[in-house]
């Protein structure tokens, strides 16, 4: 597991870059609030949720005991998967873009704000997936790691459907599990759920492949 310590040290600079990008996003949202209203302040909360998977995977890389002990590793892995859809979910916030706001804020500014948040969320998600992939590759093998990452991509796509169309969130697994389960079972036969799951799942998997294509594992 010494390779994990090396991997973590090599990702510190990347974490700083993601932090600066998140800070830039927050500044954009706050400036817009000062100019007109707090319409886009919810993006800050969405971005925080998108960074939770990265916090989990980075903690696992930094603490080998969390990986070696099953009673820590598997619950953390499930917790990571539970919050992972929040990273690509930010892409769907373009639904809030209104080109006829009439509030004095240029449309380009709102586009810049949303695309900055979406990019930040996607990059944080990809960085986190890469870290989990590295952990699974070293703990088990690369083939299993690829299978788990592919499964997580399509589960994230389904999570986007649950969040954007059915308005569930990650916390509903604990606070509202029965209603969530019924919604999941019902959506298994719906074409929109299948389309969103496959579309965003393939998109996320292709992004991850591109993101890791120049790295050796």
From TrEMBL:
Pfam families in alphabetical order: DUF1361 (PF07099)
InterPro entries with a match to the protein in the record: DUF1361
Domain of life assignment: Bacteria
Keywords: Membrane, Transmembrane, Transmembrane helix
Chain segments annotated as transmembrane: 12-31, 43-61, 73-91, 111-129, 141-162, 192-211
Name of the molecule in the record: DUF1361 domain-containing protein
